[in-house]
Specification:
The protein is of the alpha/beta class and 267 residues long. It has helices at 2-13, 60-69, 84-95, 143-153, 174-187, 212-219, 227-241, and strands at 19-24, 26-39, 46-59, 73-81, 103-106, 113-120, 127-134, 161-166, 191-195, 207-208, 245-249, 255-259, 265-266. The strands form 2 sheets. The protein has a 9-stranded mixed β-sheet, with helices on both faces. Strands 3-2-6-7 form a 4-stranded mixed β-sheet. Strand 4 (73-81), helix 3 and strand 5 (103-106) form a beta-alpha-beta unit. Helix 4 runs parallel beside helix 5 (174-187).
Length: 267
């Protein structure tokens, strides 16, 4: 265990100064905090007194933020709407010293916002009671998507890795992903993908990080608590995608790492 912790610390330190190109659906995570006052007479629902609203980098923008927090130098490619959430995401990225020159503005695009309402008593921990999602999918064809693709194809800077973060908002077409993979191969660096809805369309990746429900949906199977089914599913994804590693996240059950010709590591 001590050796594992030391190796993890070494890997984290290794992020410092690393330049990572990120092609991603950029999302705003909004948190609305309120105190419970009473039950409404109009319907059996809570009435909250608003305390605060906090907007943070979410979706692929959160991955960009995490790279920065680890001391890396992210280079994001993506699309934002010309709306208030889009402006807020761009502003927060700039405040952290993250370049936004390859993040395109789309006039008719609604920046994805995931609003979480959290409620509780005055001095208690706030609990999430509902989530509201607001977004429109990027149109096909899209001038903004073409602009991102062109920026990706013409990119000549040196990077240490490429990350594709797909949340299903229409940016990550097979053509765009192929361009990201081609860039990584030219520079001989790892390319990883996190796809929320269409895992099996990605090819040529170094590693993928699906959660268990995404693996079940992709393969049409149910894993549940069956370790043998998990093993079979993980190996099937590894083979279908031809990648070096598949890390299946399993919520409270931990994670399972599958690599070719190596025993599965359960975490």
């Amino acid at each position: 265990m001590k050796k594992d912790a030391e190796r993890l610390a070494t890997l984290v330190r290794g992020f410092r100064g690393r330049r990572v190109l990120v092609v991603a659906d950029l999302v705003a995570d909004e948190f609305v905090y309120g105190r419970v006052e009473r039950i409404s007479r109009e319907a059996p629902v809570l009435i909250l007194r608003h305390d605060a609203t906090d907007l943070r980098l979410g979706g692929g923008a959160n991955a960009v933020h995490n790279i920065c927090s680890l001391g890396g130098r992210p280079v994001p490619f993506g699309v934002l709407g010309r709306d208030e959430p889009g402006q807020a995401i761009r502003s927060q990225l700039r405040e952290k010293g993250i370049p936004t020159s390859r993040v395109v503005n789309e006039k008719d695009y609604v920046t994805p916002v995931k609003t979480r309402i959290l409620a509780g008593r005055a001095h208690s921990t706030k609990q999430q009671i509902v989530r509201i999602d607001k977004a429109t999918e990027l149109k096909k064809p899209s001038a903004s998507r073409r602009a991102v693709l062109q920026a990706l194809r013409s990119f000549t800077g040196r990077v240490d890795g490429v990350l594709v973060s797909d949340y299903g908002f229409g940016l990550l077409t097979p053509e765009l992903v192929k361009a990201a993979v081609a860039l990584a191969r030219r520079q001989k660096v790892p390319v990883t993908v996190d796809s929320r809805f269409d895992l099996l369309r990605f090819r040529g990746m170094t590693a993928v990080t699906p959660n268990e429900p995404e693996v079940e949906a992709a393969l049409g199977v149910t894993i549940g608590h069956d370790r043998a089914k998990l093993e079979s599913a993980g190996r099937a994804v590894l083979e279908k995608l031809g990648c070096q590693a598949v890390l299946v996240t399993r919520g409270s059950h931990g994670m399972a790492l599958f690599e070719a010709e190596k025993p599965t590591v359960h975490i």
